[in-house]
Amino acid sequence: MIWYSNPYSRQKNFGRALNEFCDRVPNDAWICIQDGDIMYLTDYWGSQIEDITLNNPEYSLIGCLTNRLRSPHQLYKGEFCDKDSVFYHQVIAERLYQDHYSQVQPTEKGIAGMFMLFPKKVWNRVQFREQSAAFDTFFCRDLAKIGGKIGIAQGLYVFHRYRLGKENPKTNNKHLYI
């Protein structure tokens, strides 16, 4: 089973919110942390995510591809995309779904917190740091220190609103601190 959550903290203590959620999840389950501004674009995303976990049990943490993020290794073709048409992105998502369904490619660069998929047993060893807007970066680093394998699902593409319409969307991070 996969437990999904969009943790939020008005005090911006995302690490604590994530840890409180993860603590409630059964030990034999997977956890999927996702931002509130992502959108799945294929009809069977739930089955696909389950198949990703079943076909890639050697991974400690799995991210996905998206359209807008500061991390080029998680962007489709490595490019930040300003196109706001969901239909444009749906075509990409469906193509990747068909061509790379449950394939995961390893990365040493870590993954962004907008989508993090991991087994509860990983969280039992490495928890999210509290009082840090960079909870995802620290989680990846701490996981790497204990030999955890991190990868990016090549067939799962989500639309990420990520600062859409904001000035300097690649660097605007006010939402993390206000």
From TrEMBL:
| Gene3D superfamilies linked | Spore Coat Polysaccharide Biosynthesis Protein SpsA, Chain A
Q: Which domain of life is it from?
A: Bacteria
List, alphabetically, the InterPro entries matched: Nucleotide-diphossugar_trans
- Quote the protein name from its UniProt record: Uncharacterized protein
From what organism does this protein derive? Chitinophaga pinensis (strain ATCC 43595 / DSM 2588 / LMG 13176 / NBRC 15968 / NCIMB 11800 / UQM 2034)
